[in-house]
Amino acid sequence: MLYLVGLGLGDAADITVKGLQVVRKCSRVYLEAYTSMLTVGKEALEEFYGKELTLAERDLVEQEADEILKDAKETDVAFLVVGDPFGATTHSDLLLRAVRAGIPYQVVHNASIMNAVGCCGLQLYNFGETVSVVFWTESWRPESFYDKILQNKAAGLHTLCLLDLKVKEQSLENLMRGKKIYEPPRFMSVSQAATQLLEIVRRRRERGDDPGLTEDTLCVGVARLGASDQEMRTATLAQMSSCDLGAPLHSLVIAGRLHPLEVDMLRLHARGDALTHLDRECAAAPECD
Amino acid sequence: MLYLVGLGLGDAADITVKGLQVVRKCSRVYLEAYTSMLTVGKEALEEFYGKELTLAERDLVEQEADEILKDAKETDVAFLVVGDPFGATTHSDLLLRAVRAGIPYQVVHNASIMNAVGCCGLQLYNFGETVSVVFWTESWRPESFYDKILQNKAAGLHTLCLLDLKVKEQSLENLMRGKKIYEPPRFMSVSQAATQLLEIVRRRRERGDDPGLTEDTLCVGVARLGASDQEMRTATLAQMSSCDLGAPLHSLVIAGRLHPLEVDMLRLHARGDALTHLDRECAAAPECD
Fold this sequence. Notes:
Oligomer: homodimer
Shape of chain A: globular
Radius of gyration of chain A: 21 Å
CATH architecture of the largest domain in chain A: 2-Layer Sandwich
Catalytic activity (chains A, B): 2-[(3S)-amino-3-carboxypropyl]-L-histidyl-[translation elongation factor 2] + 4 S-adenosyl-L-methionine = diphthine methyl ester-[translation elongation factor 2] + 4 S-adenosyl-L-homocysteine + 3 H(+)
Largest interface: A-B, 55 and 55 residues
Low-confidence stretches of chain A: none
Helix content of chain A: 25-40%
CATH superfamily of the largest domain in chain A: Tetrapyrrole methylase, C-terminal domain
Number of helices of chain A: 12
Mean pLDDT of chain A: 93
Pfam families (chains A, B): TP_methylase
Strand order of the largest sheet of chain A: 3-2-4-1-5
GO biological process, one term (chains A, B): protein histidyl modification to diphthamide
CATH class of the largest domain in chain A: Alpha Beta
Organism (chains A, B): Hippocampus comes
Structural class of chain A: alpha/beta
Number of strands of chain A: 12
Order of helices and strands of chain A: EHEHEHHEHEHEHEEHEHEEHEHH
Largest sheet of chain A: 5 strands, parallel
InterPro entries (chains A, B): 4pyrrol_Mease, 4pyrrol_Methylase_sf, 4pyrrole_Mease_sub1, 4pyrrole_Mease_sub2, Dphthn_synthase
Strand content of chain A: 15-25%
Distance between the termini of chain A: 54 Å
């Protein structure tokens, strides 16, 4: 049996009781280590689970899936994923390979950023399409995510922005030379994301276009969601661009049309300009208390 | 301290280790019992948690929140919610009341339908706005959810349809007479939801409008997600309208534009007409294997 087990978002204790039972009975346990991360490392998980873990890096999962699935018809193998197992396409790929090899599978779900972000106070059913904000390079500065935010906003919907992370990436030079030397990991912060968004606002204004978003657009930054040192901040984009929420992972939500209850929730984590704007939103909504 | 604890989706063992630690140390534990349900009842949870639970019905949470929060400054109180705690607005309301009363709070997240639905094989970041399909009555047959599905579909996005449930509802007659007599619980099935959708298709065709969806629109029905007897079915709307996935809860996903990997995942649970349509989708996508 192949078990795909979600680990949730915070630390070792965020695994479900069902998930822990699975981990403890499996003969091999892989920890997926490139699409996300917990606030604790492999060693802390091994101690908590009472089980040795094999780090499954991108290479292993995408190129050597057969090794992970080896003899999984006869023995139990677990593949652990931060958040929920269906957060990334590579995990669907692993599942399909298992099915084709006649290996039965079972999924143990858990919280992921896609639903836990509701704790920021914005209602999940008022979210539109989720977008990914990627690290820009000198020559590659895509804006497609920005247009999706505008589409959501036009429909009154909030947008969850997943922020880029680079783990075990090679520089172009090392990649071309075939050298397995990896760059230090990088995680996009809410301030970096807000800065990129404001750069697009500026660019579109210079072109004479209505940028749709402004320095005053309300957003919510979330850091280390579900961990004991979780941080949350309601801010304008301008405020967010200089906001330090500490260690990764960060996520950013761009607010759409606000319901009075959402305004009240956002107030819990707002300061300065953001509060002024929330008061204005509230004044515009007659049913607001 | 007020703890809002998500229970996940399947049975008692879907609580997280952190959540179980919280439940065991609290002096009062409430189980929210009107926005969703697990496949096991209160007694099974009490036995698994080793703790007595108080059922919190809609009346209690909305009208007597003060009773739930009573002395929560000095003692630990847990409020258990199926799925993740931020699935329903009433839980935000409870949290805001706690904050106003100076009661600290903590959230223990878990899987909810909003993220676990990814197991149907459709990628979560290709979902648009979530909609609720409500039970129609003789005189009230709203179609607003249908237009949101069309908007999502036009943008190539999938739509998660949350299906109505009626727990401890009074008939209009008993409500008006002030009689606390409750109707038997009702849970919308995927076949009922598909039937309502097809009714709208028919109505719009009769008006001479393009209904946007057809009998052949691909959808995925999910029943008892996360439980050991979970059922999943890829079907056309026509197939789904006569598909029996058994006991509640059910959810329905209307597919948008399909990625080849999504087609492969949907095939795992498809039969007959749905397979033909998936093959056609695949033929139209040159990168499909």
